[in-house]
Amino acid sequence: MKKNIFFVFIVITFLSIINSYSQNTGKISIHAGTAIPVYEFASDNIKDTEAGGAAIGINAGIKWVYPVSNNGVGFFWGIDFNYNKLQKSVKNALETELKQKGITNYSITYPEYLILPVSAGFNYTYFINDNVDFFLNIGLTATFLKVTKSKVKYDGDKYSTKFDITNKVGGIGGFGFIYNNKYMISANYMGLGDFHIEIDDGGVIGDQKIKIISVSVGYLF
């Protein structure tokens, strides 16, 4: 049921952005940049059950801002995609453990994080001069998390772990600058929630708090 609600939220957000573009109301922007994990999500301590071990990844998305007054106050809707692999230090630590157990002939496909936050909230834009605007966003997120399948092969045996898609409600806040009403640079803090990680056979891995700082450049249509 929760997954259906999240899916409907994504569809409504996407259709709202497309409708805004077709009616020429508000501003639509696209952006791309880095997704920097912080706090538990960035920890590479494999002994810590809350450590995510995520490396710096990529961020991309689309956003619609709809002004409701002439003093810069408005609303925003957005969809982002974050992609993070595991840190090299985490991979090295796991491989060291295998070698200590006498396992040397092996191959590993490491899990990766696919993170899709949908956001909505308040926007404030301050018009510095004819060429430069400053903006602030703060709102809520509804996020899908998919951890990709991990695989281990050694001594002719194969083992794999497939993870379920999970979702959570969180928050987002950010700021940025717009130049010439076309070009944008922004930074956002995403506290996306404490996700319950489960494997497809019903087993539970644990909880993972996901917090990301994204720094991106964008273009307004």
Describe the model.
The model has no long low-confidence stretch (mean pLDDT 88). This protein is of the alpha+beta class and 221 residues long. The strands form 2 sheets. The chain has an 8-stranded antiparallel beta barrel. The chain has a 3-stranded antiparallel β-sheet with strand order 4-7-8, with no helix packed on it. It has helices spanning 2-23, 88-100, and strands at 27-37, 57-67, 73-84, 106-109, 113-127, 132-147, 150-154, 157-161, 166-179, 183-198, 204-220. The radius of gyration is 20 Å and the shape is elongated.
Any descriptors?
single chain; eight-stranded antiparallel beta barrel; elongated; 2 helices; alpha+beta; three-stranded antiparallel β-sheet; Porin; 221 residues
Element order: H for helix, E for strand = HEEEHEEEEEEEE
CATH architecture: Beta Barrel
The global form is elongated
Number of strands: 11
Strand content: over 45%
Mean pLDDT: 88
Largest β-sheet summary: 8 strands, antiparallel, barrel
The strands making up the biggest β-sheet line up spatially as: 1-2-3-5-6-9-10-11
Low-confidence stretches: none
Radius of gyration: 20 Å
Total helices: the number is 2
Helix content: 10-25%
Q: Give the termini distance in whole angstroms.
A: 36 Å
Write the layout of secondary structure elements.
Elements: H1 2-23, E1 27-37, E2 57-67, E3 73-84, H2 88-100, E4 106-109, E5 113-127, E6 132-147, E7 150-154, E8 157-161, E9 166-179, E10 183-198, E11 204-220
Antiparallel strand pairs: 1-2, 1-11, 2-3, 3-5, 4-7, 5-6, 6-9, 7-8, 9-10, 10-11
